[in-house]
């Protein structure tokens, strides 16, 4: 505080420095410089230590190890992999497995969660209380315990392949995992994917322009119908060509193991079921909160115009609730992607397991590998939040 | 045409007034059996509940074995039931990990002391509430660490640890003296001490007397503690529920100061501080906890000077503190954003500086607003502590899994997992119900 009085002594140099520091702008610069200096000093200290330690261990920093042969096997992968491939491939295998697991969890978790969330709002007290019990039990037990529970007590307790469960000679379930028939095509997978993408793209474009025209003049011109028919013809043609090149690979018992078909390991099954159940409880709460955020007047208005309960749900409640549900739902999806890293505990070969554990142990390149894994998760979370913001802007109430 | 119709408009007869349906049977009928679909739903739910409850109770209670020496014996007695004998056999391990049997009283008394320290907060008539909480966060850890780690003063216990342990012990005694005085309706301890010390100090500042008595008591406690020899128990023998609770309570207590600093940094107008905090928060929140744990375990030994290799618990505590702090920062930021500008302006008008404004005006309000979110974070931190088992810390999760490796109980997976699931459920559900209760109470206060 400054008490200005005539008898105040003339400020000395030290005093003028302090009064200068008291100015907000100067102080800001000093504080920032000090923080930056401190952070840089700490980083420098850490890096000089790490340089020394790496020297001592005979390692150098760099991403050249990605080209070298990994030399270890991965128990299950969606994309082709064998031990002679490079660490770069290991990274890709980890990413694909992680994304596959999280995708399955997201799809089924959202489905079950929505159903449970709506059941939770049921007028029947038994149903709503049962849904409540499900949600409370599932979300108050740590996910890791649930994953290990499913793995050790359900999937590992299944009988071995020779005496495992089979259904119509097509689907098999045993302590190794789950087998089902899969389609194998002689054509290159890339070609099929590219053609289907083009087909989907044209369909989307067609539908959009039809809808735009319908909005403008209330009817759809004939040229669009012809285009639509053409699209259908191309689709049928593609289906014929692909279908003729398709063969079904059916799993069958050979010796002590089941060969052929598509295989999902039991670690995947356990992680998938545990995570889906856990995620569905969180999503159920999101859905319930979204539904409850709609004012009672909307229910009453729907009842006034004679909507049945299902119609009210479909036409009045859900379209409005979506606005409140989507942001936390997308957040839940992001958490599901991050939670998929817990599958490392039961040996499912996802990114953390194959790259952060095995590869670090094999190469010792901890700094590079950890920054790559963290970079992957950062990119995924940025993409999801970007898409969410786009969608959010799309569904918000637009003020006209 | 339509006008014609409107002329002959016949209103529907008014509905009968709602009768007061207090009859239980009527209510059940109306809510559970009002239509065929609903009746079918009710019946199928009842059947489902019956089968789930019956099979669970059969397994867990009616066919269970409580007394056996090995799992084989369990299987002989009742092959379909739970084998609780193994869990009972390992119960001590589940709670204390590999802590030596004869030293376990120290864990118990340390935990009880932590609870006793907070107990006075439950009473309404107690002065210096905040100081109790702050002392619990700053002083108790030293006393607790001394109890859990053990060692002799001056030999295994470092000089700073010694001083703070004595201070904590002294404070603990003062705390209870003060509480007793307050409970008896007397003036608080510092005020009581004023006449005693007014002769020593020119001005009768009661804090001086309090500090003096505290110092004397601490020296006395230090003297007593120096005579006691507690068998040292290294950190790698800690485990079980005890370790889980240590990690969880560390995460919970440290997340608040770290979170406050990061949140203030993120809201700061100084660009360097803003960007640094934002980058840290976003980076930590974008990655799973398990990668942060792996990072702490593999990178800390590389980044620290060779020779100074921290033990696994310190590495984990570092990771957990960073992770919990980043999540808490976002909660607190939400609270800070909800405070109207008028509060800042009012504080400025009073001539308060930045830290006083934040500490006295803004943060208390922001924290109170965010209590539900903060409690949710606490619950998820408690659940997330199970992850430390992945990097090989013997918390309750890994102890439970290890029972299946014991040669007597080989393959006994389900029962320990069921037990710790129930334990976590009780803790987490209790916390969430408490937070709902707290939220209601605070709302009642505000309106």
From TrEMBL, chain A:
<feature type="transmembrane region" description="Helical">
    <location>
        <begin position="366"/>
        <end position="388"/>
    </location>
</feature>
<dbReference type="InterPro" id="IPR043429">
    <property type="entry name" value="ArtM/GltK/GlnP/TcyL/YhdX-like"/>
</dbReference>
<feature type="transmembrane region" description="Helical">
    <location>
        <begin position="262"/>
        <end position="281"/>
    </location>
</feature>
<keyword id="KW-0813">Transport</keyword>
<keyword id="KW-0812">Transmembrane</keyword>
<feature type="transmembrane region" description="Helical">
    <location>
        <begin position="91"/>
        <end position="119"/>
    </location>
</feature>
<protein>
    <submittedName>
        <fullName>Polar amino acid ABC transporter inner membrane subunit</fullName>
    </submittedName>
</protein>
<keyword id="KW-0472">Membrane</keyword>
<feature type="transmembrane region" description="Helical">
    <location>
        <begin position="29"/>
        <end position="47"/>
    </location>
</feature>
<dbReference type="GO" id="GO:0006865">
    <property type="term" value="P:amino acid transport"/>
</dbReference>
<feature type="domain" description="ABC transmembrane type-1">
    <location>
        <begin position="95"/>
        <end position="388"/>
    </location>
</feature>
<dbReference type="InterPro" id="IPR000515">
    <property type="entry name" value="MetI-like"/>
</dbReference>
<feature type="transmembrane region" description="Helical">
    <location>
        <begin position="59"/>
        <end position="79"/>
    </location>
</feature>
<dbReference type="InterPro" id="IPR035906">
    <property type="entry name" value="MetI-like_sf"/>
</dbReference>
<keyword id="KW-1133">Transmembrane helix</keyword>
<dbReference type="GO" id="GO:0043190">
    <property type="term" value="C:ATP-binding cassette (ABC) transporter complex"/>
</dbReference>
<dbReference type="GO" id="GO:0022857">
    <property type="term" value="F:transmembrane transporter activity"/>
</dbReference>
<feature type="transmembrane region" description="Helical">
    <location>
        <begin position="187"/>
        <end position="207"/>
    </location>
</feature>
<dbReference type="Pfam" id="PF00528">
    <property type="entry name" value="BPD_transp_1"/>
</dbReference>
<keyword id="KW-1003">Cell membrane</keyword>
<dbReference type="InterPro" id="IPR010065">
    <property type="entry name" value="AA_ABC_transptr_permease_3TM"/>
</dbReference>
<feature type="transmembrane region" description="Helical">
    <location>
        <begin position="140"/>
        <end position="158"/>
    </location>
</feature>
Automatic annotation (TrEMBL), chain B:
<dbReference type="InterPro" id="IPR000515">
    <property type="entry name" value="MetI-like"/>
</dbReference>
<keyword id="KW-0812">Transmembrane</keyword>
<dbReference type="InterPro" id="IPR010065">
    <property type="entry name" value="AA_ABC_transptr_permease_3TM"/>
</dbReference>
<dbReference type="GO" id="GO:0006865">
    <property type="term" value="P:amino acid transport"/>
</dbReference>
<feature type="transmembrane region" description="Helical">
    <location>
        <begin position="32"/>
        <end position="53"/>
    </location>
</feature>
<feature type="transmembrane region" description="Helical">
    <location>
        <begin position="286"/>
        <end position="304"/>
    </location>
</feature>
<dbReference type="InterPro" id="IPR035906">
    <property type="entry name" value="MetI-like_sf"/>
</dbReference>
<keyword id="KW-0472">Membrane</keyword>
<feature type="transmembrane region" description="Helical">
    <location>
        <begin position="209"/>
        <end position="230"/>
    </location>
</feature>
<dbReference type="GO" id="GO:0043190">
    <property type="term" value="C:ATP-binding cassette (ABC) transporter complex"/>
</dbReference>
<feature type="transmembrane region" description="Helical">
    <location>
        <begin position="346"/>
        <end position="364"/>
    </location>
</feature>
<keyword id="KW-1133">Transmembrane helix</keyword>
<feature type="transmembrane region" description="Helical">
    <location>
        <begin position="242"/>
        <end position="265"/>
    </location>
</feature>
<feature type="transmembrane region" description="Helical">
    <location>
        <begin position="416"/>
        <end position="436"/>
    </location>
</feature>
<comment type="similarity">
    <text>Belongs to the binding-protein-dependent transport system permease family. HisMQ subfamily.</text>
</comment>
<protein>
    <submittedName>
        <fullName>Polar amino acid ABC transporter inner membrane subunit</fullName>
    </submittedName>
</protein>
<feature type="domain" description="ABC transmembrane type-1">
    <location>
        <begin position="241"/>
        <end position="435"/>
    </location>
</feature>
<feature type="transmembrane region" description="Helical">
    <location>
        <begin position="133"/>
        <end position="153"/>
    </location>
</feature>
<dbReference type="Pfam" id="PF00528">
    <property type="entry name" value="BPD_transp_1"/>
</dbReference>
<keyword id="KW-1003">Cell membrane</keyword>
<feature type="transmembrane region" description="Helical">
    <location>
        <begin position="105"/>
        <end position="121"/>
    </location>
</feature>
<dbReference type="InterPro" id="IPR043429">
    <property type="entry name" value="ArtM/GltK/GlnP/TcyL/YhdX-like"/>
</dbReference>
């Amino acid at each position: 505080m400054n008490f200005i009085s005539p008898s105040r002594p003339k400020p000395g140099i030290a005093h003028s420095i302090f009064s200068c520091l008291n100015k907000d702008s100067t102080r800001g610069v000093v504080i920032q410089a000090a923080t930056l200096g401190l952070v840089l000093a700490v980083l420098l200290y850490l890096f000089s230590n790490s340089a020394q330690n790496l020297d001592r261990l005979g390692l150098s920093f760099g991403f050249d190890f990605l080209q070298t042969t990994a030399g270890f096997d991965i128990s299950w992968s969606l994309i082709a992999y064998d031990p002679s491939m490079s660490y770069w491939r290991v990274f890709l295998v980890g990413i694909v497995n992680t994304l596959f697991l999280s995708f399955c969890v997201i799809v089924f978790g959202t489905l079950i969660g929505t159903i449970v969330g709506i059941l939770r709002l049921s007028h029947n007290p038994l149903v709503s209380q049962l849904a409540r019990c499900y949600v409370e039990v599932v979300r108050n037990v740590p996910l890791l315990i649930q994953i290990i529970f499913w793995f050790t007590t359900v999937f590992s307790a299944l009988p071995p392949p020779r005496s495992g469960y089979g259904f119509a000679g097509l689907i098999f379930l045993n302590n190794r995992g789950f087998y089902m028939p899969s389609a194998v095509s002689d054509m290159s997978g890339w070609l099929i994917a590219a053609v289907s993408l083009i087909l989907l793209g044209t369909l989307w474009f067609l539908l959009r322009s039809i809808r735009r025209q319908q909005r403008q003049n209330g009817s759809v011109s004939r040229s669009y119908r012809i285009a639509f028919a053409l699209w259908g013809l191309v689709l049928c043609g593609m289906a014929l060509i692909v279908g003729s090149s398709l063969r079904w690979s059916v799993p069958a018992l050979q010796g002590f193991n089941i060969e052929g078909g598509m295989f999902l390991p039991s670690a995947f099954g356990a992680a998938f079921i545990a995570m889906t159940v856990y995620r569905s409880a969180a999503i159920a709460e999101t859905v319930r909160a979204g539904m409850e955020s709609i004012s009672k007047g909307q229910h009453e208005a729907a009842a006034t115009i004679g909507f049945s309960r299902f119609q009210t749900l479909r036409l009045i409640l859900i379209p409005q609730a979506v606005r409140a549900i989507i942001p936390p739902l997308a957040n839940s999806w992001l958490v599901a992607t991050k939670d998929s890293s817990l599958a490392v505990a039961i040996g499912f070969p996802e990114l953390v397991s194959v790259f952060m554990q095995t590869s670090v142990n094999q190469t010792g390149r901890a700094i590079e590998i950890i920054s790559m894994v963290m970079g992957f998760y950062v990119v995924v979370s940025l993409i999801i939040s970007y898409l969410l913001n786009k969608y959010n802007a799309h569904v918000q109430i637009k003020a006209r | 045409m339509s006008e014609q119709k409107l002329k002959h408009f016949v209103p529907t007869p008014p509905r009968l007034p709602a009768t007061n349906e207090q009859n239980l049977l009527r209510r059940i009928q109306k809510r559970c059996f009002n239509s065929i679909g609903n009746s079918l739903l009710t019946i199928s739910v009842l059947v489902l509940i019956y089968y789930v409850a019956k099979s669970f109770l059969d397994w867990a209670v009616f066919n269970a074995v409580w007394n056996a020496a090995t799992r084989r014996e369990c299987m002989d007695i009742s092959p379909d039931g739970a084998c609780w004998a193994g869990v009972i056999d390992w119960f001590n391990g589940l709670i204390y990990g590999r802590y030596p049997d004869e030293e376990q009283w120290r864990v118990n008394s340390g935990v009880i002391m932590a609870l006793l320290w907070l107990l006075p907060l439950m009473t309404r008539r107690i002065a210096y509430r905040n100081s109790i909480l702050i002392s619990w966060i700053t002083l108790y850890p030293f006393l607790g660490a001394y109890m859990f780690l053990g060692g002799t003063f001056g030999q295994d216990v470092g000089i700073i640890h010694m001083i703070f342990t004595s201070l904590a012990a002294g404070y603990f005694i003062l705390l209870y003296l003060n509480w007793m005085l307050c409970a008896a309706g007397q003036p608080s301890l510092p005020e009581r001490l004023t006449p005693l010390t007014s002769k020593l100090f020119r001005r009768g500042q009661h804090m001086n007397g309090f500090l003096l008595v505290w110092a004397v008591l601490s020296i006395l406690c230090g003297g007593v503690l120096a005579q006691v020899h507690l068998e040292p128990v290294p950190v790698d023998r800690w485990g079980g529920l005890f370790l889980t609770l240590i990690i969880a309570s560390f995460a919970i207590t440290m997340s608040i100061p770290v979170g406050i600093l990061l949140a203030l940094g993120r809201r700061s107008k100084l660009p360097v501080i803003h960007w640094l905090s934002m980058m840290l928060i976003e980076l930590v929140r974008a990655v799973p906890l398990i990668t942060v744990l792996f990072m702490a375990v593999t990178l800390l030994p590389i980044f620290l000077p060779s020779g100074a290799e921290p033990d696994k618990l310190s590495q984990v505590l570092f990771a957990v503190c960073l992770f919990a702090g980043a999540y808490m920062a976002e909660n607190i930021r939400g609270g800070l954003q909800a405070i109207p500008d008028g509060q800042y302006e009012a504080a400025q008008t009073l001539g308060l500086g930045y830290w006083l404004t934040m500490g006295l005006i803004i943060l208390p309000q922001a924290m109170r607003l965010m209590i539900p979110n903060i409690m949710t974070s606490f619950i998820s931190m408690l659940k997330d502590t199970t992850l430390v088992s992945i990097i090989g810390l013997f918390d309750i999760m890994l102890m439970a899994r290890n029972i299946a490796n014991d040669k007597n109980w080989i393959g006994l997976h389900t029962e320990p997992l069921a037990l710790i699931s129930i334990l976590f459920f009780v803790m987490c559900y209790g916390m969430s119900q408490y937070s709902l209760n707290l939220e209601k109470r605070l709302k009642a206060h505000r309106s």
